[in-house]
Specification:
- The chain contains 8 helices and no strands.
- It has 141 residues and is mostly helical.
- It folds into 2 domains: 61 residues; 79 residues, Arc Repressor Mutant, subunit A (Orthogonal Bundle), CATH 1.10.10.60.
Length: 141
């Protein structure tokens, strides 16, 4: 089977071509702090909104809305673990219209509140730092 034939067979099955998928992902990452609509993503992909939503779900295994929501929640996790930003600041930075929606979405996806997540991260870092200090001390003897 030639490489060209394989490419044609792959597209016959549907889904977004890799270059379009990358453009959509890059757009989401670059505009996370803004409202991201299916219409805007479809325009990036050069498809009608309905067709885009169908092929996006086929490619990613979830709707574009769900993908953006999960991307926002992953970014919240990073910010909670690595900054001292308030949750209101984080919610704004990742494009949630309000802190309540941010908390609700985070809890639905992660399983607990952003506050509990941050406390857990802080406890893990304290335990890790303590273990590191002990191991460094043990090496001295």
């Amino acid at each position: 089977m030639s490489a060209g034939h394989h490419f044609a067979v792959q597209h016959a099955r549907g889904g977004l071509p890799p270059c379009v998928r990358r453009r959509v992902h890059d757009y989401v990452a670059a505009h996370l702090d803004q409202k991201i609509t299916n219409d805007a993503l479809a325009q990036i992909a050069g498809l009608s909104t309905g067709h885009f939503c169908a092929v996006f779900k086929q490619t990613e295994g979830m709707s574009p809305h769900r993908y953006v929501l999960q991307y926002r929640v992953r970014r919240i996790q990073q910010l909670l673990a690595s900054t001292e930003m308030s949750l209101a600041e984080i919610a704004d930075a990742v494009g949630f219209c309000n802190q309540s929606h941010c908390i609700q979405s985070f809890k639905k996806i992660v399983g607990f509140t952003p506050g509990d997540y941050r406390c857990n991260c802080l406890q893990d870092s304290v335990h890790s730092a303590g273990a590191f200090e002990v191991s460094q001390t043990a090496q001295q003897f």
